Amino acid sequence: MIKFNNLLTIESLSNEEIMYLIKKALNFKLNNEIPKLKRETFIANIFFENSTRTHKSFEIAQKMLGFNSINLEVSRSSIQKGETLYDTVLSLDCLNVEAFIIRHPEKEYYNKILNSKNLRTKLINAGDGVGEHPTQSLLDLMTIYENFKTFKDIKVAICGDLKHSRVAHSNMKILKRLGAKIYFSGPLIWYEDYYKDYGEYKKIDDLINEVDVMMLLRVQNERHIEKFDKSDNYLIKYGLNNTRYKKLKKNSIIMHPCPVNRNVEIESCLIESSKSKLLAQMKNGLYMRIAILYELFKERF
């Protein structure tokens, strides 16, 4: 059993709390018995960056649990008149919104909200710049556990745009803490020295036949400031093509947070292959977010 008001980083959860959420989400998925709120409760989804999977899985999870969802359209809100995120949250808090799901391009955007003397709202970080993405990390952990029933000594390769991926930043920290062995791969221009604290860098051809989880990352062209030669054949040099796929171990799985750049990080024909868990990740995202929202307002069910 866990009790929390905010979910901002994956590290804020203990290993026991993570396993509790994974088992709770798996139970909702297997039995499809979703509880209903007994009291009207408003939740606001505020996304400053485009999103399909995270935004819509939160919205559907809210509707399945009986929440009233407020989807703030940033492009048509007072934010376009210069209103700050803090003032937007303050305003909606006055209108009885009791929890916020926020994605924002600024890393740790949530600090001012948490330090407010007037706000008592609950907050879930749906992605902060190049910071973290704790709910994606939890659904990734759920997918790995669903397949291997443990994290201990599972070999995970995190491959691609490491520097700009909040998924990588969340997952490298928590997977090591849970006992997995981490490898990194991809262009060295996106590799930071401090990643050595979590795992070892290898070229993809040097690790393809030994990993249990091949976790590919989207090339985030929208975040690139440093020079990167887009004419490089990324798939051949760093991605998962069909030749490399055949070298994976029998029980290995492929993961990707999506959206996918087809034929860049992964050859298009492999997206729905037998080892691919991309669709399972999306489904698990719904049930993990149901579990998180349920625990956030547990006393009202």
From TrEMBL:
The keyword Transferase applies. Carbamoyl phosphate binds at residues 53-54, 103, 133, 136, 259. L-aspartate binds at residues 81, 166, 218. It comes from the Bacteria. The keyword Transferase applies. Pathway: Pyrimidine metabolism; UMP biosynthesis via de novo pathway; (S)-dihydroorotate from bicarbonate: step 2/3. It catalyses: carbamoyl phosphate + L-aspartate = N-carbamoyl-L-aspartate + phosphate + H(+). Belongs to the aspartate/ornithine carbamoyltransferase superfamily. ATCase family. This is Aspartate carbamoyltransferase. It comes from Spiroplasma corruscae. The gene is pyrB.
